[in-house]
Design brief:
Elements lengths: L1 H45 L6 H22 L5 H30 L5 E14 L2 E8 L6 E5 L8 E18 L2 E19 L2 H8 L1 H61 L1 H5 L1 H27 L12 E4 H15 L5 E6 L6 E4 L1 H17 L5 E10 L2 E8 L33 H11 L3 E6 L5 E8 L5
Parallel strand pairs: 7-9
Antiparallel strand pairs: 1-2, 1-3, 1-5, 4-5, 6-8, 9-10, 10-12, 11-12
Helix pairs in contact: 1-4, 1-5, 2-3, 5-7, 9-10
Length: 468
């Protein structure tokens, strides 16, 4: 059964991991789709910026200036580097005009978020007879010639359009004192990009409901899985307890039943019937074993009551007198055994409001366990002390002790530290459960301190009664 539960838990965890992976994959796909749609809609909203009279006018201005510098370069009046640098000075003045225009257009678009827009030149190539003969500028990876707008790294932007212009420009070239008409064939490549400020946050915000539903669904599945496994383990525990209890009660009933069988057979024996002493002895055995069976049945019936089902008949008792009676009665019950019982009672007189019969049963259950699970000469020490408005009763023994992992379980119904139906000590595992219920019914608390081979201490804390 344990192996089946372990396999179920491992399988459930693997299924949960797989479900989480699938969910993460779907969420990531949704994120990418949302991102693409969002960027596409933004591109559409700002695409008109490049198709207006103002932009055409700016384009004509920078194109004419660039062509003018290229003509000078072609005439060898400017170096290639100087051609671009001098154009940059003119570009800066035009960019101020462009930024005013750009801000006005973005405001018209009413996007609800900020973005940066830039136009860059990717390459400038001079052609002759349809063939490229000179590359004035060519963008390397990660490098562009910034033209208009607000500059930002390429990896942070999204391309909204690319332009490729082929133009012819006529100019006069002075060669050896003679003016010649010459054509300047150009190919200019440009690229428009946008950088949406905080686009990740915007896309994630759009996915808020999806995230919330996914998290709630995941938590629901985890909770359902946890509840199912917990219930299964609980059912297994109940089944184990039931099996253990049946084994134990069977073990406890076997001896008196076997003895009753032997005694009843002996009563049918003529020799026993003819001997008054033997006959009386057999009847005594029947009475004792009948009483033992009755005691076992009563123990199962009464010791399984919960604290809320216990009816208390409280009376006020003086602590010293009460515990003196407890010690004396217990000493009589273990007379003839190697048991030493000592006490140290609170020196102030304290009144306790308790059900004497039930509370005595609780204390006797603890001390009986000290004797049952003792080793060699058993020593039991009962101490009491007043602590603020609470009264503490501790019972310490020098027994075998209880492993720490068992501490919380010893108060459970039918639980015993040893498993199965083979026990060194007889019992049904009801004593400490009943003791705990009695203490709770008195609005008290019971705590346990124990380590293997170092003995055990049970501490009961009770509210005190007002003095009469």
């Amino acid at each position: 059964m344990r192996n089946k539960i372990n396999i179920l838990i491992i399988t459930s965890i693997l299924a949960l991991v797989a479900l989480s992976g699938i969910q993460a994959y779907l969420i990531n796909n949704t994120y990418q789709l949302k991102k693409d749609v969002f960027i596409k809609e933004t591109k559409k909203s700002v695409s008109s910026i490049d198709n207006t009279k103002e932009m055409d006018s700016l384009t004509e201005m920078w194109y004419n200036k660039l062509t003018e510098n290229l003509v000078k370069y072609k005439k060898r009046k400017l170096l290639k580097k100087e051609t671009i640098e001098q154009f940059g000075l003119h570009r800066d003045s035009l960019n101020k005009v462009f930024q005013e225009y750009y801000k006005k257009e973005i405001k018209k678009a009413n996007l609800g978020y900020d973005l940066k827009y830039k136009k860059t030149i990717k390459s400038v190539v001079i052609f002759e007879n349809g063939n490229p003969i000179d590359t004035v500028f060519a963008a390397n990876e990660g490098e562009n010639y910034f033209l208009f707008g607000e500059d930002f790294p390429e990896e942070e932007g999204n391309v909204i359009s690319k332009g490729r212009w082929f133009t012819e420009h006529d100019y006069e070239d002075d060669k050896e004192g003679e003016l010649l008409k010459t054509k300047l064939d150009l190919e200019i490549r440009t690229q428009d990009s946008i950088n949406i400020i905080g686009w990740q946050r915007i896309v994630l915000k759009q996915m808020t409901s999806l995230f919330v539903c996914s998290v709630l669904l995941f938590l629901f599945v985890v909770g359902l899985l946890f509840y199912s496994i917990k219930t299964l383990i609980g059912q297994k525990k109940i089944a184990d307890v039931r099996t253990d209890f049946i084994n134990n009660i069977t073990h406890e009933l076997k001896t008196p039943l076997a003895t009753l069988g032997i005694a009843s057979k002996s009563l049918r024996n003529k020799e026993t019937q003819n001997s008054p002493e033997a006959f009386s002895n057999a009847l005594d055995i029947l009475d004792r074993q009948n009483g033992r069976l009755q005691k076992l049945i009563d123990q199962v019936m009464h010791n399984t009551l919960g604290s809320e089902e216990i009816t208390l008949k409280k009376e006020k008792v003086i602590d010293e007198e009460y515990f003196k009676e407890i010690i004396e009665d217990f000493k009589l019950s273990v007379q003839g055994q190697d048991v030493i019982v000592s006490s140290k009672i609170e020196f102030h007189e304290v009144y306790l409001d308790i059900d004497k019969f039930l509370f005595t049963t609780a204390l006797f259950n603890i001390m009986d366990n000290s004797v049952k699970y003792g080793k060699g000469n058993v020593e039991i020490v009962l101490r009491t002390k007043l602590k603020d408005d609470l009264y503490e009763i501790s019972i310490h023994d020098n027994g075998v002790g209880i492993p720490e992992v068992e501490h919380r379980k010893v108060f459970e119904k039918f639980y015993r530290v040893t498993d199965g139906n083979v026990h060194d000590v007889k019992g049904l595992g009801l004593g400490l459960f009943y003791t705990n219920q009695i203490v709770k019914a008195h609005s008290g608390r019971i705590d346990l301190e124990s380590r293997p081979d170092l003995g055990t201490t049970f501490t009961i804390t009770l509210p005190i009664a007002e003095a009469e």
